[in-house]
Model the fold of this input.
Amino acid sequence: MIYFPPGRYGVSKALKVMGNNIRLVGEPGQSILTKLNSMNYLHVGDIEKNLLTQEARKVTASVHMGDMRLSVRGNGLGSNQWYVLAESLRKPEKDETIPAEFIHVYAINGEHIELSSPLIGSYEAPALIPVNWVTGIAIDGLSFDGANYLSEEHPNNDNVMTLSWCQSPIIRDVSGWKLPNLFLSLQGCMLAELSGVKVTNGLSANFQGAIRKFSYAVVERGLNMGNVITGIHADRVRHAYTTAHSKLRLGVPMGTRISNSIAIACRGAGFDTHPVGSGITFVNCATLGSLHAGIQVRSSDTQVIGCSAADCLGPGLSITKTASDTVVTDFNSRRTGFGRYKNKIWYEHGAIYDWGLRTNINDATVSDSAGIGVEVSTPANGGIYRNIRVRNPGLHRDGKRIGYQVGGNTLERFIFTDCVAEASGLPLDTGFFVRAENAADGLLSGCKVYNAIQPFDVSGKNVYVTN
Done:
């Protein structure tokens, strides 16, 4: 264990941790590290060197989701060992992600290796690379002050803490302030446990960040599996949490769970996923006062459970066209959509704005939005929306007083069940406005409208309204 007594410590060179079973411990808010140059504060492991120096083996046959056996020629593979299974190790094309996952080998039978769990993905002719984990890492009670880090000469890609190739690291009660860069980056990590991450005054004065820099609280880059993050407190950063490519563009974050967290005055969405990610879950996360969306989903199989957004210039919840199979339960949006972003005028769109594939929203409330309450737009298809209540939409002077707007030339297969639109004071223009001329199998069932000039304005092929 390395203990940092209360005090301020100038960091002139990055602190690098490459060994196992190392704990860095300080007193929360009192053991403070400050930067003296543009180096990282703290770097645990090295994902690029670790991966590229290992000897890869080719799997001799294609493998598929759910398989628990691989065929590999040659000796030297070990049982009870972790590997990365990757589609290839070639240099990826621009914007390409090479599919990959962590696997554990528990037995070897000749040229067959038996896995401890079924494969998540399918691969044509993958490579198998041994993992040399950094294990037994704990960082507890350290704080980071970026007051000396306010110059154009410092590159934007600096991180305060980077954890690479770590299994089961524990990060607790760490904090940072005045940091116009990324606070905590996870890449190639598995079963990480983060709790009590506090980042304040990220110095992002606008969407481009102060002095053209981005600041983030927690970012997962590339292949990560099963990380658990709780208790993020972030203000004036771009995102409290997001995902991104790693330098190698190998794999995506999978199965991460972010809970009991709050983002205030963010310059982007408070909680976000890029298209890089699968199976990310947000539980009891709240955004207050974002200059963009409250929560933005751009990846596949995301879950948003018991979350909320209030006083955002963008939508409370944005599900983009790159998202698929998003599940939202018990979401609350209040006073959102009063601003604009680039060419997007948010009060012309929904407080819940869905243009993803096969979205499922259950039990949501939208109140006092600038524009439309809920908008489902092309290329969204296959969405199911249950028990949503929209109250007083269209409060912006130029906003449309529409509860639900569903439309698009390619929109098809949507169902709204037991949804409500209502207004106090001025009536709604329309409760449900549906324009889906080419839609197939659209259904509004058991939906109610209170205080509207036109409760239902519905047209489209095979679109039905039933009690």
Summary: The chain has a mean pLDDT of 88.
